[in-house]
Write a structure and sequence with these properties.
Elements (H helix, E strand, L loop, with lengths): L2 H18 L13 H5 L11 H12 L21 H13 L10 H17 L7 E5 L2 H16 L3 E5 L4 H10 L2 E5 L16 E5 L13 H10 L3 E5 L24 E4 L1 H4 L7 E5 L2 H8 L28 H36 L3 E3 L7 E6 L3 H13 L6 E5 L2 E7 L7 H12 L1
Parallel strand pairs: 2-3, 2-4, 4-5, 5-6
Antiparallel strand pairs: 1-7, 6-7, 8-9, 9-11, 10-11
Helix pairs in contact: 4-11, 5-11, 6-7, 6-10, 11-13
Bound molecules: pyridoxal-5'-phosphate.
Length: about 425
């Protein structure tokens, strides 16, 4: 077999997988260790044809997949790897660009700067911000904390009790002290008072559990008055700013020192692709720039590796470029409008049924709800629904109470899928 033939077979496999995805169970129907037991303990001594790998996808891998591409995947924040993004991943791997600096990959460096700036414009973010791509929001937030510590010379991080665990993890990895602020009745961070020793405050637009929106403007004004950095985590909800009508949640974001938004969550880009902007690029770069002799080049080289932890950088901008071109801003806006509409439809069913209630205000495409009953009953409903393989939802807790979350973010999800989720939960 040649690369070309294997490649055609691989693309056929990918197309078939996507065609049959809605017939597969959403949640993997395997027990821990099932796959391990089927995998040889050692690597093969003799070379095998690539076709064997493809065969084993069906035999071994697919049964152990939780199918994130499934239209009835409603857990966590549902995502989509769109076809242009998938093909661009293949091409990026083919070109194997390791963008250490401009010379190592002019294409990756310049395309990244340009397409991240396209997204900045589409989301209505300020002119002049510097943006680049990190693998995940976890890395982006860690980078922002490093920059904040460098600039302020302080060591304290403040975020809401509902902030994503990546903020706490970054603080822990960096040996920074974390202070969690309580939230108000609408699950928004209370504006902190005393920030004089604080390096960075991290408000969230679209919290992981409830998609609540912290008061970024008030927080940023208070933080800046105290000399602290402001890093906004809009990993999920930031993409919705592509819609003018969702920009209410952007209020104050223009004051941020840094901002993270994940196209691998709600902009159809295959994981991983997380955008990190800063309004203070020079200071940000100062925190990270370290150029060893072997990377010095005659040209006035621009290196995106000077803006974050990684030296060798993947050609991630290719998939973002492909998605932006193949959907157009119009296509992405239509998708967001539809997802937000579907969440409203589901929330209306919940509100109209006396046996169910909304547990948090509806925001973006996330519905938080519970059945009138005990935590155990709610937990049992969720577990049975997920085990059925028909739908997959996740949960959170609010004031100790078990809450179900239905997150809409898959491009294949239709109203029929959302209705099916409602039927399964009621059944
Ligand atoms: C608000 C928020 N921030 C950060 C993250 C972490 O994202 P990543 O997996 O890209 O590190 C998540 C993940 O769901 C999130 O919801």
């Amino acid at each position: 077999m040649t690369f070309r033939e294997d490649g055609h077979a691989a693309v056929d496999w990918a197309a078939d997988y996507l065609d049959r995805i809605s017939g597969l169970p959403v949640l993997a129907q395997v027990a821990p260790g099932d796959l391990t037991a089927k995998l040889p303990a050692c690597a093969p001594e003799r070379a095998e044809p690539f076709a064997n790998v493809l065969d084993d996808l069906d035999e071994l891998i697919v049964p152990a997949l939780t199918n994130w591409q499934h239209p009835r995947f409603f857990a966590y924040f549902a995502v989509t790897a769109s076809e242009p993004g998938i093909l661009a991943e293949l091409l990026a791997a083919t070109m194997q660009q390791v963008a250490l600096n401009w010379r190592a990959s002019p294409a990756s460096t310049e395309l990244e700067l340009r397409v991240v700036d396209w997204v900045r414009q589409l989301l209505g973010l300020p002119d002049g911000w510097h943006g680049h791509i990190e693998d995940t929001a976890s890395t982006g937030t860690m980078a922002a904390l490093i920059a904040a510590r460098h600039v302020t010379g302080r060591n304290v991080v403040v975020c809401s009790e509902h902030a994503h665990s990546s903020v706490e993890k970054a603080a822990r990895m960096l040996g920074m002290e974390l202070r969690k602020q309580p939230a108000d009745g609408e699950l928004r961070m209370r504006v902190p008072d005393d920030l004089d020793d604080v390096a960075v405050v991290v408000p969230t637009v679209g919290t992981t559990s409830f998609a609540s929106v912290d008061p970024v403007r008030a927080i940023a004004e208070r933080a800046h008055a105290a000399g602290a950095w402001v890093h906004v985590d809009a990993a999920y909800a930031g993409s919705s700013w592509i819609l003018e009508e969702e920009r209410w949640s952007q209020d104050g974001v223009e004051l941020a020192d840094s901002l993270v938004v994940n196209p691998h969550k709600w902009l159809l880009v295959p994981v991983d692709c997380s955008l990190l902007w800063t309004s203070r690029p020079d200071e940000f770069r100062e925190a990270f720039s370290l150029i060893p002799e072997y990377l010095r080049t005659p040209e006035d080289a621009y290196a995106l590796s000077e803006y974050g932890p990684a030296l060798g950088r993947r050609f991630r901008s290719l998939k973002l470029w492909a998605v932006l071109r193949c959907y157009g801003a119009e296509g992405l806006r239509a998708l967001h409008r539809e997802h937000i509409r579907l969440a409203r439809v589901f929330a209306d069913w919940v509100e109209a049924d006396p046996e169910w209630e909304l547990a948090a205000p509806l925001r973006f495409s996330l519905v938080c709800f519970r059945r009138d009953g005990s935590d155990e009953e709610n937990e049992a409903i969720l577990e049975r629904a997920n085990r059925s393989g028909e739908i997959f939802l996740s949960h959170t807790r609010l004031d100790g109470r078990f809450v179900l979350r239905l997150a809409i973010g898959n491009a294949r999800t239709t109203e029929a899928d959302v209705r099916r989720a409602w039927e399964v939960l009621n059944r």
